[in-house]
Amino acid sequence: MLKSALLIVSLFAMPSVVVPRMPSAADPISASMVPASIVLSAPSPVQLEYTLRVDLADLSGIFVQLRVRNAPASIQLAAHAHPEYDDKYWRYLSDMRATGANGADISVVAHDSVLWRVNNVAGDVTIRYRVRFPKDESPRGAWKPFLAPTGGLVGGPHSFLYVIGQETAPVTVTLDLPKSWHVGTGLSGKSTSRAFNAPNVHTLMESPMLVGIMSEWSFRVKNIPHRVFYWRLPNAIAFDTVRFVAGLEKVATGAINLFGSAPYADFTFLMQDGAYDGGLEHPNSVTLGAQSADLAKDPNTNLYDSAHEFFHTWNLMAIKPVEYREMDYRVQPPVASLWFSEGLTMFYADLLLRRASLSTYDSTRVAHLEQLISRYLSMPGNARYSAEAVSRVEYNAPAGALGDYTASPHLQGEVIGSMIDLRVRSATNGKRTIDDVMRGMFARFGKVKFTNADVERTTQDVCGCSVRNIFDKYVRHGNAMDFNSYLAPFGLRTNVTWAPATGNDGRLRADLSIWAFDVANEKLLRLRVSNPAGIWAKAGLHTNDQLQSVNGKPVATWQAFRQILTQLKIGDSLNIVVIKAGKPFTVHVVVAGFSQPQVRLTAIPGATASQKQLQAAWVRGQ
Questions:
Q1: Each residue of 42-67: pLDDT tens digit?
Q2: For the segment 421-438, what is each residue's pLDDT rounded down to a tens digit?
Q3: For a disulfide at 243, which of 56, 228, 299, 373, Cβ 3.0-4.6 Å?
Q4: Residue 105: which region, alpha, beta or left (left: phi > 0; alpha: psi -120 to 50)?
């Protein structure tokens, strides 16, 4: 798709983009510096009027109409590619047709899987099409659209095409829904509304709509309105909604207090029963899975994911990497700073909950850092590859881009962020923390996009110290993290031991550091090895080997291969036939266990009072 899309770009040039001046290290850092809204170019004479219809008699998809007022002659339609989750819903689009102002049919020509040309004359033109929603695994991803008799999730790039060259045109969207349904969306308007406005197409694409029969609550933080919508399954289990909403309010309060302001005028939480935990952030809304069965046990059970996605409102939506595009039908290019956008968001998802005295996965910050370092060490790719390299292959990269290694920008970023925090605290004798770095990034880059060099300069300006060692060794290059050099000023050091991995039942765990994946237009699965020191790599299997059979039986799907893995016990043996360079090879594997690191932070003998004071403040999360 990329090659043909790039060809279309050369045929139909995109409008030029003016890049604003990037802030310099000399720009002051102040929590009072609140980024203003991005100023768009002069309003387009073109107006875009969308209508989205849901028919209870046919819940397999939606019907969309786009009326382009004052359209120029010959317009192009495109399917927006989300930077992170490009679900390619153009695959499910059908029945496209166009008519002119007089009702006469106009030809629509598909130039590419994501591009169409409408050969209209100047004036009004109406385009109609249908989008069929595929059935996802249950539970489904919270950001993916669905329809049920009592509601669903619609809107965004899954539903709407856009007109190339008219991205700044004002937008209206009208929803044709069952009478009893309400609407939750980041677009301004009451939940009973059927018509909403957006200043431009990007805002429309970043405003999914939870529709249906659902609960609605609200609260204010610093007089900023926040709304919470919750859609229930028919068999939903009752839970404590007061505690549920109160937890979200505490998270919102903590984030706004941290930055001193919010990058939105109002915010909307779109919560769904039946979707798994996790979600997708938007400039002033978030889609989240929150299963009622889990909430009945603990109304705050999904707060970590909620805090993570909500913090992205600042750290990704407002503080945006330089590679991130606004509107584009092409696949998002590699992003070198996802370690910061994702990793620091992981860091604050945990810290916001601690500061609000809400439950966390780990009892203390010490325990949390111990588990963090343990997970970091258990993935050798984290030390082999730089944070930039790992960030670049997180989205839209071929599976196995790191060979027989795996690494995570989320994990790398949280570890690096933790070390930056320790460095800032020690350099300023506890007067500054990574909180000041985040406020500085928001002040400097809330209106323009940032690079890794900007993170480094901002950190150095905050602490008045050099952090070049961190960025050279771990961000720009791959090296094993020297944790003790950052922990020493706090009177701490790591004690790492390796032991056989065991399950909750005390039994040894089998090494399952391999899985399989599909490749388009290939009949055979390909293997993905995640640890070159594991039993699979040592036996001779490597990433991108084509899987022909296991113990003489063909394996057609990755689900079938996963089922084989989950049934393995230590001592089992397998004969695996793979295709390497076009030739079959038989590999014999004997299942064995593996070792995992156990990390403890221990006190340095003779720690000074100053070190203990720094440590105590860090432990409290202050």
A1: 555 899 999 999 999 999 999 999 99
A2: 999 999 999 999 999 999
A3: 299
A4: beta
Burial of 369 (0-12, 13-18, 19+ CB in 10 A): buried
User: Tokens 């082999």 sit at which residue?
Assistant: 384
Q: Compute CA distances 104 → 49, 125, 556, whole Å.
A: 19, 10, 49
Token look-up 């944790």 returns 483
CA torsion, points 610, 615, 621, 622, in degrees to nearest 10?
0
Per DSSP, 39 falls in state: P
Q: From residue 11, give the alpha-carbon distance in Å to each of 81, 145, 326.
A: 19, 33, 21
User: Parallel, antiparallel, or unpaired for β 47-55 and 171-176?
Assistant: parallel
Nearest to 195, CA basis, from 213, 173, 171? 173
Quote the distance between the C-alpha of residue 11 and its chain's center: 32
Element (H, E) at 402: none
CA 349 to chain centre: 14
pLDDT of 146 higher than 80: yes
Length in residues, the chain: 622
Backbone conformation region of residue 464, classed left if phi is above 0, alpha if psi is from -120 to 50, else beta: left
Q: Which residue has the tokens 């706090």?
A: 490
Backbone φ/ψ region at 529: left (φ over 0), alpha (ψ -120 to 50), beta: beta
Residues contacting residue 275 through CB under 8 Å, at least 6 positions apart: 139, 140, 141, 142, 288, 289, 290, 291
Mean pLDDT, rounded, for 554-562: 93
585 contacts 578 by C-beta, under 8 angstroms: yes
The CA radius of gyration of the chain, in Å to the nearest whole number, is 26
Which run of H or E residues covers position 276?
A: none
Q: Two tokens at 318?
A: 């407002």
What digits encode the pLDDT tens for the residues 259-294?
999 999 999 999 999 998 779 999 999 999 999 999
Query: Maximum Cα–Cα distance for the chain, whole Å?
Result: 87
* CA separation for the pair 256, 161 (Å, rounded): 34
Of the candidates 286, 37, 295, the one whose C-alpha atom is nearest the C-alpha of residue 184 is 286
pLDDT averaged over every residue in the chain: 91
Q: Contact 105/98 with Cβ under 8 angstroms?
A: yes
Do 76 and 163 contact (CB within 8 A), yes or no?
yes
Displacement of CA 452 from its chain's centroid (Å)? 19
What pLDDT, in 10s, does the model give residues 413-424?
A: 999 999 999 999
Intra-chain end-to-end CA distance of the chain, in Å: 49
Mean predicted confidence (pLDDT) in 206-229: 98
**What is residue 17's predicted lDDT score, i.e. its pLDDT?**
30
Q: How many helices (H) and strands (E) does the chain have?
A: 17, 28
Q: Percent of the chain having pLDDT more than 70?
A: 92
Contact 355, 254 (CB under 8 A): yes
- H or E element, residue 355: helix 338-355
Closest CA to 269 of 312, 318, 325, 327: 312
Tokens of 265: 């005028």
Q: What is the pLDDT of residues 182-199, one digit of tens each?
A: 999 999 999 999 999 999
Count CB-CB contacts under 10 A for residue 285: 27
Give the C-alpha separation, 88 to 131, whole Å: 11
Closest CA to 149 of 190, 180, 191: 180
